[in-house]
Design a protein that fits this description.
Preprotein translocase SecY subunit, 2 domains, 19 helices, globular
Length: 418
């Protein structure tokens, strides 16, 4: 491991990329402590003791939302805009054409995504400022607009920061910003456990049990995240002019967890929305219905798991076009041994994808609901160790390690990972 790290430090380009990424992390963490003007942050912090949508957003922002800093909305509007653009790419023919045009088409889609981020960010900021007007020192249209513009500017700056990390640093900048926000909560969790231990609320074996569960979950996540079904593909030989092409074998890697962390985010948002809205409505029956969907209740847990399975299939179907995959394979003279090109190949790929997506969706559901039982098993309260955070940390860490590995292998026979 030390020799691998020395390989990174010896390569000037890679060393500069790593240092630039770390410097951008410092900028991000500094911004989470800059408060939004005209807001009483103490009032807002009381809302995060309850299970609502703000708690999920606070996880992505690295605690910036509970402090109501300029980065309170984090990069969430950009994620929403990107997901919307992915869905529109399937529906709108113009966007689908751009997606097939290579770099120029992607630049157009990226530009629209940026505009969508600013628009969605401003709408979300206005709604957040109005919904939290009880914490505004001088509530009024001017104060709400000032807060909304400040929050939108913070999100836009984070979007720019992420693009700079992608261009000049290591890994995907947007993912790394979310990663930094999630990882920044780990010291708070360790401090909470230390307080419980010194107060005698828990014992050493509780902490050891918590660590054991965490390690098992991490190994489980890595195994599924790296898991894939490899479909063998044979390319026929073709003679073009005086040259012969094809005649080689390859495979199509179909990932078990094709949808990533998106299904958990969708399901969490849908279930937490009634609880969050009910906080602003003082009607008894509304409070009763919201109680049914409170975090950790049997009804909420069951619906949560079913929604994750549904959104896994939905998002996989939207992002992975089996028909286009089979058609492109046919155009280039490729075929799956034992199957005719065209519709039989598409039907086979669809059956395989349906089966492995079931395994991926069940995996996501388990990872998402296990944290509900960790507090009861370990007796450690107030320390969040959720599937969303775990998937983000493991997924981003693996992708970043692969990029470092590729850069190191360009200059050394031995890479960063063994």
């Amino acid at each position: 491991m030390l020799s691998a790290l020395s390989n990174i430090l010896k390569i000037t380009e890679l060393r500069q990329k790593v240092l630039f990424t770390l410097a951008m992390f410092l900028v991000f963490r500094a911004g989470t402590h800059i408060p939004v003007p005209g807001v009483n942050a103490a009032v807002i912090e009381q809302m995060f003791t309850q299970g609502n949508l703000f708690g999920l957003l606070d996880l992505f922002s690295g605690g910036a939302l509970s402090k109501f800093s300029v980065f309170a909305m984090s990069i969430t509007p950009y994620i929403n805009a990107s997901i919307i653009m992915q869905l529109l790419t399937v529906v709108v023919p113009k966007f689908e054409q751009w997606a097939k045009e290579g770099d120029e088409g992607r630049k157009k889609i990226t530009q629209i995504t940026r505009y969508g981020t600013v628009l969605l960010g401003f709408i979300q900021a206005v709604g957040m400022a109005y919904g939290l007007r009880a914490a505004v020192i001088n509530p009024g249209i001017g104060s709400i607009l000032l807060i909304a513009v400040t929050l939108t500017a913070g999100t836009t700056f984070l979007m720019w920061l992420g693009e700079q990390i992608t261009d000049k640093g290591i890994g995907n900048g947007i993912s790394l910003i979310i990663f930094a926000g999630v990882v920044s909560r780990i010291p708070d969790g360790i401090y909470v456990m230390y307080q419980y231990l010194t107060a005698g609320t828990i014992q050493w074996y509780n902490i050891l049990l918590f660590i054991l569960i965490a390690v098992v979950m991490i190994v489980f996540v890595i195994a599924i995240q790296q898991g894939q079904r490899r479909i063998p593909v044979q390319y026929a030989k073709r003679v073009v002019g005086r040259k012969m092409y094809g005649g080689h074998s390859t495979h199509i890697p179909l990932k078990v967890n094709q949808a990533g962390v998106i299904p958990i985010i969708f399901a969490s948002s849908v279930l937490m929305f009634p609880v969050t809205i009910a906080q602003f409505i003082n009607v008894p029956w509304v409070k009763t219905v919201a109680g049914w969907f409170a975090w950790g209740t049997p009804l909420q847990t069951a619906i949560y798991a079913l929604l994750i399975v549904f959104f896994t299939y939905f998002y996989t179907a939207v992002t992975l076009n089996i028909s286009d995959m089979a058609e492109n394979m046919k155009k280039h003279g490729g075929f799956i041994p034992g199957l005719r090109p065209g519709k039989p190949t598409a039907d086979y790929l669809d059956r395989v994808m349906t089966r492995i997506t079931l395994a991926g969706s069940i995996f996501l559901a388990i990872i998402a609901i296990v944290p509900n039982f960790i507090a009861a098993i370990t007796n450690i309260q107030g320390v969040y160790f959720g599937g969303t955070a775990l998937l983000i940390i493991v997924g981003v860490a693996l992708d970043t390690m692969k990029q470092i590995e590729a850069l190191v292998l360009m200059r050394h026979y031995q890479g960063f990972m063994k």
